[in-house]
Amino acid sequence: MRVEIRGSALIKLTQSIINITIGDKTVKKDKKVSKKSKVLAHLVSGESITPLEALELYGSFRLGAIIFELRADGHKIDTEIAKGSGHAIYSYIK
Fold first, then answer.
1. Would you place residue 5 in the very low, low, confident or very high pLDDT band (cuts 50, 70, 90)?
2. What does the pLDDT look like over 25-82, one tens digit per residue?
3. Bridge partners for 80 per DSSP
4. Which residues of 19-57 are buried (b: 16+ CB within 10 A; e: fewer)?
5. Is the pLDDT of residue 15 over 60?
6. Which residues contact 62 (CB under 8 A, 6 or more apart)?
7. According to the model, what pLDDT value does residue 4 have?
8. Distances, alpha carbon 1 to alpha carbons 42, 56, 80, 81, in Å
9. Is 92 within 8 Å of 44 (Cβ atoms)?
10. Over the chain, what HEC string results?
11. What residues make up the domain containing 38?
12. Facing residues of 89 across strands?
């Protein structure tokens, strides 16, 4: 799957390889794609994600921990709290 993002970001995700390019920075993994990489690809593609979506799409029970790690890696991720349910909605800041 290829997803073209505004500007210079490009994501290529397959079963065994992930390449994420944002500006000059490229992340490449030639092994089983981790949940962290799948969530990053999801966010960089312009989609927001909730804990329930992360569980359904990627089998991740710990989206908050993944978001913490991505932020520690330097990615800018916004958190919005849904009114009523109070769950987190995460989105990538470009």
1. very low
2. 666 655 567 899 889 989 998 999 999 999 999 899 999 999 999 999 999 999 999 9
3. 89
4. bbbbeeeeeeeeeebebbbbbbbbbbbeeebbbebbeee
5. no
6. none
7. 42
8. 12, 19, 28, 30
9. yes
10. CEEECCCCCEEEECCCCEEEEECCEEEEECCCCCHHHHHHHHHHCCCCECHHHHHHHHCCCCHHHHHHHHHHCCCCEEEEECCCCCCEEEEECC
11. 2-92
12. 80
* Cβ–Cβ under 8 Å, residues 11 and 19: yes
Residue 6 pLDDT > 80: no
Distance CA(70)–CA(38), nearest Å, equals 11
Q: How many domains does the chain have?
A: 1
40 token code pair:
């990053």
Q: Report the C-alpha gap between 59 and 77 in whole angstroms.
A: 20
Is the Cβ–Cβ distance between 11 and 47 less than 8 Å? no
User: Do residues 66 and 60 make contact, with C-beta atoms less than 8 angstroms apart?
Assistant: yes
